[in-house]
């Protein structure tokens, strides 16, 4: 079975702190994604990556950056956390070519910024 | 990528009843996928229907697709309390951005 593992289920950080959210997948997927989910707003795409060291902005990239140094790992970085970044963060991965585009999600990381 | 719009936003039924959720989208698709999310967890892929298919079944799930109306429906038959979750549709275009886009989903509550 595909497994997408997010490093922390719950985090509490202070305004201005640098925050790292880590995501690892074990199915050799080319594509990896970071979404945030807020009540009433659905899932919004922050960044995605289709190859090592490649990244593309999603719909709400402001205040975030990402890193993909290895194929299996995709990190989301909040350079200076703010209270409006309190949210549930979901990582997902998928194959690139010859597949349906089905996404496999991690369990989520709920971040609270005080 | 395009976003699907689920309807209704919330649905409450009794155990044993059927639950129907609808999804509308705007442009042509390659396939449409349905996902489920238990409270506080990640999304799980349920079923995919391709643009050349009209109906698909998987266990108690039945998905239909009407490309002329740009709509899909997910039917859960003989619902159980364990079906309580949010359900999302994700239309996938053949071109454009690789990422799926999700709406706010349908929150299904199945009363025991």
Your description of this structure?
The mean pLDDT of chain A is 93. Chain A contains no helices and eleven strands. Chain A has strands at 4-6, 10-13, 19-25, 31-38, 42-49, 56-57, 65-70, 73-78, 87-94, 104-105, 109-113. Chain A is an all-beta fold. In chain A, strands 2, 4, 5, 6, 9, 10 and 11 form a seven-stranded mixed β-sheet that branches. In chain A, strands 1-3-8-7 form a four-stranded antiparallel β-sheet, with no helix packed on it. Chain A is 0% helix and 52% strand. Chain A is globular. Chain B is mainly beta and 112 residues long. Chain B is 0% helix and 53% strand. Chain B is built from no helices and ten strands. Chain B has strands at residues 5-7, 10-14, 19-24, 31-37, 43-50, 55-58, 61-66, 71-76, 85-92, 106-111. Chain B has a five-stranded antiparallel β-sheet, with no helix packed on it. Chain B has a five-stranded mixed β-sheet with strand order 2-10-9-4-5, with no helix packed on it. In chain B, a hairpin with a 5-residue loop joins strand 4 and strand 5 (43-50). Chains A and B meet through strand 4, strand 5, strand 9 and strand 10 of A and strand 4, strand 5 and strand 9 of B.
SSE layout:
The complex is a heterodimer of chains A (114) and B (112).
Chain A: E1 4-6, E2 10-13, E3 19-25, E4 31-38, E5 42-49, E6 56-57, E7 65-70, E8 73-78, E9 87-94, E10 104-105, E11 109-113
Chain B: E1 5-7, E2 10-14, E3 19-24, E4 31-37, E5 43-50, E6 55-58, E7 61-66, E8 71-76, E9 85-92, E10 106-111
Parallel strand pairs in B: 2-10
Antiparallel strand pairs in B: 1-3, 3-8, 4-5, 4-9, 6-7, 7-8, 9-10
Q: What's the total number of strands of chain A?
A: 11
Which residues of chain B form runs of ≥5 with pLDDT under 50?
none
Count of DSSP strands of chain B? 10
Question: What percent of the residues of chain B sit in helical stretches (DSSP H or I)?
Answer: under 10%
What structural class do the secondary elements of chain A suggest? mainly beta
Q: Provide the helix percentage of chain A.
A: under 10%
Provide the low-confidence segments of chain A as ranges. none
Distance between the termini of chain A: 37 Å
Largest sheet of chain A: 7 strands, mixed
Number of helices of chain B: 0
pLDDT averaged over residues of chain B: 93
Shape of chain B: globular
Greatest interface (CB-CB under 8 A), with counts per chain: A-B, 29 and 24 residues
Radius of gyration of chain A: 13 Å
What letter string, H or E per element, gives the SSE order of chain A?
Answer: EEEEEEEEEEE
Measured between the Cα atoms of the first and last residue of chain B, the distance is 38 Å
What kind of oligomer do you see? heterodimer
Strand content of chain A: over 45%
The radius of gyration of chain B is 13 Å
